[in-house]
Design goal:
Blueprint (H helix, E strand, L loop, with lengths): L4 E9 L3 E3 L15 H8 L16 H8 L4 E7 H4 L24 E5 L7 E3 L2 E6 L3 H12 L3 E6 L1 H9 L5 E7 L7 E2 L11 E7 L5 E7 L1
Parallel strand pairs: 1-7, 1-8, 3-4, 3-7, 4-6
Antiparallel strand pairs: 2-9, 5-6, 8-11, 10-11
Amino acid sequence: MPQLLRVQCFNVSRDGFGTGEGQSLERPFGHADPTPLFSWRAATASFVYRTEPGGTRGLDDYLTRDAECNIGAEIMGRNKFGPQRGPWENHDWQGWWGDNPPFHTPVFVLTHHVRPSFSLSDTTFHFRDVSPAEALAEAKQAADGRDVRLGGGVATIREFLEADLVDTMHIAVAPVDLDRGERLWDSPDELLDRFHLESVPSPSGITHLLFWRR
């Protein structure tokens, strides 16, 4: 099977925003309350940060598990890695995720300001100032035959869509409006010239949008 570039479990609001305005260290999603966007996934049995037994085992759980299936590398933008802009003031900041990030693969962070690679547990972060196609080629090599996950944020996903590099997407649409921030789309119909689309509502209130290439 060919290696795929997959967007998995990426959350947007009903009006198409993936994050709010005014990101900071204290507020990774800016003015937006992340709870309505992510609570569906936190309620599942397979949620990566679950510490107690229980959780749902329906559609939401299936898609949560699928996000990790056959992933060998990750690509993300700098704004997903952290809130800093411009040259790195120091190298002490090592991401939002603590000493054991949830990726467990090589992660390629796209930035105009590179810094040395480093590892936390079994995740190694590499910082690259390259085109989407070059980043994908390196990530596929590092993935050793498995798929590559495109983790976001919004600007990075749009950049890879514009380069026509994305093979599949799962976008979880929450029943909340953010009004401002970083917008993935005005309507998912914008992508129908290149992708098939199925819309699957969940009892949690989330609508799961599944895209795959035509």
